[in-house]
Design brief:
single chain; about 90 residues; mainly alpha; DUF6356; DUF6356 family protein
Length: about 90
């Protein structure tokens, strides 16, 4: 049988796991894996936009709107997720 100290430790660890890994995806009505996949997709798109902006800084004739278009698209996507969460 678990002691009171062991139970408190298990409860606090469960609380930490829930807070760090599950609470936010749940608030968006998503699984941990689904949220992770979406976050990776957004991250890669933003990295691509950053690379395009760096290239544009050196060669202004290319990637003139790539970074701004990507950031606007990502902003709209995140706003839609926030509206869904707040509904």
């Amino acid at each position: 049988m678990a002691t009171t100290k062991q139970r408190k430790l298990e409860e606090s660890q469960g609380g930490i796991v829930d807070r760090l890994f599950l609470e936010h995806p749940r608030s968006l009505d998503m699984s941990w894996a689904g949220h992770g996949a979406g976050a990776v997709k957004v991250g890669l798109q933003l990295i691509g936009a950053g690379i395009a902006a760096l290239i544009h800084a050196v060669v202004p004739g290319i990637f003139g709107e790539t970074a701004s278009t990507t950031v606007i698209r990502m902003h709209d996507h995140i706003q839609k997720l926030n509206a869904k969460r707040d509904a």
